[in-house]
Amino acid sequence: MNADVWNGAGRRIFLQEVGTRDGLQAEEAFVPTAEKVALVDALSDAGLAKIEVTAFVSPKAIPALRDAEQVLREIRRKPGVVYSALVPNVRGAERAIESRADELNLVMSASESHNLSNLRMTREQSFSALAEVAAIARSAGVAVNVSLSCSFGCPMEGEVPVETVLGWCGRYVGTLGAHGVTLCDTTGMAYPTQVAQLARAFRERWPDTELTLHFHNTRGMGLANVLASIAAGADRFDASFGGIGGCPYAPGASGNVCTEEMAHALALMGYDTGIDLEKLLAAAARLPALVGHDVPSQIVKAGPRLALHPHPADFEQIRERALARAAA
Prior knowledge:
Elements: E1 14-17, H1 19-23, H2 33-46, E2 50-55, H3 68-74, E3 82-86, H4 90-98, E4 103-109, H5 112-119, H6 123-140, E5 143-149, H7 162-176, E6 180-185, H8 192-205, E7 210-215, H9 222-231, E8 236-239, H10 259-268, H11 277-285, H12 287-291, H13 298-302, H14 315-327
Helix pairs in contact: 2-3, 2-11, 4-6, 8-9, 10-11
């Protein structure tokens, strides 16, 4: 493993977009179905490796995603891009499979308190429910990824032991047959040395399982955590265009790590993300009008590093005066 994180040397890093699910579900404004489809299509064209398109949940619980079937059926599918959907139960899985999801993303928490508060079940009850969904996915030939919330800390319990996190991961891989696991920093409690330790431990135990890291930028450590994970061998990251999203347990906090900020930084460091930054920025720039407010993305506001500005209108006069003073 090359731990020189500052020199990407063409190493492939896979960026996976969650803004159309994790981001839009947190918005009060309902983004029209046609606009959601257009956003997913734009993100496909921008080079994202995977897009979590939507969630098959109760429309009463998350009205912002009540058009899940229509969106997933109407998107333009680009070869090589994985189109995923979050599903909470058997009925959600059936709906997602009928709508041609490439992957089902299942969710539970590493923390008992968070699982009860968020899913209204104990962790064991959640696991039993996920086992039913995984069986349906297997019979339909659809891949399963399991996202483990609060892998880096719980907003109610505090620290979550590494062995607790890895224990659940082992059950996902061994019992459920999950092809991938996502370790989620649900409220932005992760820090670089912690994520490096967990990512390295996961890679050592399950080298053939797809590992994704899902960071929130709640406390400003998102990109630092990404770099620490890369140094530990991770190569897949969830991110949200515009930096949209959030969590009810971190009110007022920023959303997921911003896709275009991550793509911009990694490209400058020599990593191959497969991202067309200009196209990604164009997609993110559409968000404020759709959601009704500004978005956190600093790259949308400032532009890429070499987005140069014209000289002042009186630049030539300034230079001539400066040269005259130098000659005097």
